[in-house]
Amino acid sequence: MKKLLIILFLFGFTGFVYSQIAFNHKPTKLDTRETFRTKPMAKSNVVNTNYHNAIILTTQSDRVKSLEQRVANYNITKQDIFKEKRNTYAINFKDPNYNGRINAYFNKEGQLIKSYELFKNVKLPHAIWNKIYNEYPESVIQKTVYRVHYSIVNGTSKQYKVTIIQNNEKKQVKLDGNGNFI
Predict the structure, then answer these.
(1) How far, in Å, CA of 104 to CA of 114, rounded?
(2) Helices and strands, number each (H, E), in the chain
(3) 3-state DSSP call for residue 12?
(4) Fewest CB atoms less than 10 Å from the CB: which of 62, 110, 164, 177?
């Protein structure tokens, strides 16, 4: 019985060693230009170009970008509400998961004049993420809130409010769109 166990052990061991030797090869090099090639964006009829250029081109979260694209493509002049001849029109856009919303305001010519955006639990841009982890190295991000204020007159301001846990303590940090702590 003892000899049988030794023989089985040796066969098992040699098979294991052989598999490591036989498949020990250098990994192939990946061509990163091919691997990370981005898909071309779908053509869209952007109605609100000022908003599109100020907001969407710098947004990194796909979920946020999707709702912002709806606002950029929204043509209020083709809506029934536009026939009411008001000075200002307020339209609310909501994320299907209820984690984001955009309140957009249009003037009587149909031009998007301002918007207020609020998104919860968005993916942070790498620059913001790196800034937080450089300042708070052992922290864990618990939740995020992303706010954008767009105005055709005053420009755009972006703010990230991030709740982190560091050493079992909750802490809130605020950063602007460039990653500067506020």
Answers:
(1) 6
(2) 5, 6
(3) helix
(4) 62
Helix then strand then coil, in percent of the chain rounded to 5, is 35, 30, 35
Tell me: the pLDDT tens digits for 128-164?
999 999 999 989 999 999 999 999 999 999 999 999 9
Instruction: For residue 86, give every residue at least 6 positions away whose Cβ sits within 8 Å of its Cβ, in sequence order, or none.
Output: 108
Half-sphere exposure of 16 (CA within 13 A, CB side): 6
- 181: its two tokens: 């702590």
Q: Parallel, antiparallel, or unpaired for β 140-151 and 100-107?
A: unpaired
Task: State both tokens at 127.
Answer: 């620059």
- Distance, in Å, from the CA atom of 163 to the CA atom of 140, rounded to the nearest integer, reads 9
Q: What are the structure tokens assigned to 66, written together?
A: 């999707």
Q: What is the pLDDT of residues 82-130, one digit of tens each?
A: 988 899 999 999 987 768 999 999 999 999 999 999 999 998 988 899 9
Contact 132/125 with Cβ under 8 angstroms? no
Q: In angstroms, how far is CA 166 from the centroid of its own chain?
A: 23
Cα–Cα distance for residue pair 48/137, rounded to 1 Å: 41
Q: Give the CA dihedral 110, 45, 74, 100, nearest 10 degrees.
A: -140
